Amino acid sequence: MNTSDYYYLGLDLSTQQLKCTVMNDTHAIVLEEAVNFDRDLPEFHTTHGAIQNGDTVTSPTLMWVKAIDLLFDRIKNSPVAGKIRGISGAGQQHGSVYWSKTGIEKLSQLDPKKTLEEQLSDAFEISQSPIWQDASTTRECRSLEALVGGAQALADLTGSKAYERFTGNQIAKIYNDREDAYDKTQNISLVSSFIATVLLGELAPVDSPEGSGTNLMNIETHRWEDKLLDHCGGVSLREKLELEPVEGGSALGKISPYYVERFGLHPDCAIMPFTGDNSATLVSMNLQEGDCVVSLGTSDTVLVYLKQGAAKATTESHLMAHPTDPTGFMGMLCYKNGSLTRQHIRDTYASSNWDEFNRLLQIDTQGKTGFYYDMQEIIPFAKGIYRFEKGQQVQEFDNPSANVRAIVDSQFLSMRIRLQRMTTVESKRILATGGAAANTALLQVLSNVMGLPVYKQKGMNSASLGGALLAKYGVVDHGPNEFKEMMGHREAEEPELVCKPDLEVTKQYAARVDEYVKLEKLVVDQQ
């Protein structure tokens, strides 16, 4: 078969759904499917894909397994199933999976007549996987920072200070509080390497960008740091992780025969390392220096491509390994209170109607500033709703509908301030992605706050498209740093200009920065 007949599958196991994108050799998308956890798998009783109990937030690991069953059943019925030659993808960052002593063994003995769910029902020592929304590990975070000499010292070593959602701190909580379950755990995967493991039929390593989201990997060497491993999980943690992180662009092996026999995939289909959802989004955008991705979804994230020398580790941002440039970095800001919090404000103040929300978005807040943290926020570390009028804290605005503009202003001002602290490279344009990027009124405020034009790429499933591109990168012959050349052969459309900033409005936002920083500090001081 000529490589022009090859297809590449990208998967994205996000918080709320398992999505897939299949593209051809010229990068045209030929198939997109999704399994929504709440709608398609109601028996797992999740809300927005998760189960929340105070600050503890998990997802049923078996739900993800069943979603793989359902998604591949749909792919099986497509004409491209047998032509897929590479699979990669993404998982929601930081989440972790705890394999039982027989779990990995079961993967090598799968019966194609039975579902994955049937055969892996007892493959996990811990049935609920901690996910990125969890905020229950503050004790473990402070302990890890103290080990190395403080938050900045840990950021210098691993790329980030200790965050509650980071995998090392989640592992440490289980190690401290659930000793029996931890001892019985044979292997630990991240969500991304879990999917690769299920497809490969044997334990798959994490890639280096995913290692960056654990507080366990040295950001310079891309290797696990022993003193961090020992602190978070004892001497056995290295054995449970088993494999060192790997770089993208090299095959891990062929797909398990189970998928060939049950779903009609090609036996030569290669499995590549899976990455995190944010780094996969960066791949799909083919970022250059000066590009800034703003992903507006369940969480809001800001991503920038940073070359050596332009990157600074700070205690409010993340410096992560780059998925296709081993010497480069991905700078990231992550906010928990994204689309769901905006939706809550829409429901409360705009009659549950996005058109009304967008109308109210046009009205200036006139000295009103709000901070909206329904969930424990990451940047800054705060929870609750706080409103200020002309610098004074109030219970509610005199015009409650001002909450609509206030939440959007507040979210985007925070991005502007932190981005400037993270890098000396000046941004030239914003590439918007995520579900909320469909709202042009929202993007216009983003453009005005940042003072930059906003572009949008065709196709909204950017993480799964990034996975498909990584799949191709692993299949084609390439030298180091040749991803850019591969992307030059694509048919995909260039991003579309959606809006330009009103520079007079941008000046008004710039004048608000100092006041915003002062009020945010008041909020943090109230925690």
Layout of secondary structure:
Blueprint: E1 7-13, E2 17-24, E3 29-36, H1 37-40, E4 51-53, E5 56-60, H2 61-76, E6 84-91, E7 96-99, H3 103-107, H4 116-119, E8 128-130, H5 138-148, H6 151-158, H7 167-177, H8 179-184, E9 187-190, H9 191-200, H10 208-211, H11 226-233, H12 237-241, E10 253-254, H13 257-263, E11 270-271, E12 275-276, H14 277-285, E13 291-296, E14 300-306, E15 318-321, E16 329-335, H15 339-349, H16 354-361, E17 368-373, E18 384-389, E19 392-394, H17 402-422, E20 429-433, H18 440-450, E21 454-456, H19 462-475, H20 483-487, E22 496-499, H21 503-525
Parallel strand pairs: 1-6, 6-11, 6-12, 13-20, 20-21
Antiparallel strand pairs: 1-2, 2-3, 4-5, 5-8, 7-9, 10-11, 13-14, 14-16, 15-16, 17-18, 18-19, 21-22
The total strand number stands at 22
State the helicity in percent bands: 25-40%
Report how far apart the termini are.
62 Å
Radius of gyration: 22 Å
Q: Which stretches are low in confidence, meaning pLDDT under 50 for 5 or more residues running?
A: none
Classify the beta-strand content into a percent band. Answer: 15-25%
Task: Summarize the biggest pleated sheet.
Answer: 7 strands, mixed
Average of per-residue pLDDT values: 93
Determine the number of helices (DSSP H or I, runs of at least 4 residues): 21
Oligomer: single chain
Structural class, by secondary structure, is alpha+beta
Q: Sum up the overall morphology in one term.
A: globular
Keywords: ATP-binding, Carbohydrate metabolism, Kinase, Nucleotide-binding, Transferase, Xylose metabolism
Pfam family, one: FGGY_C
Enzyme class: transferase
Domain Carbohydrate kinase FGGY N-terminal: 131-283
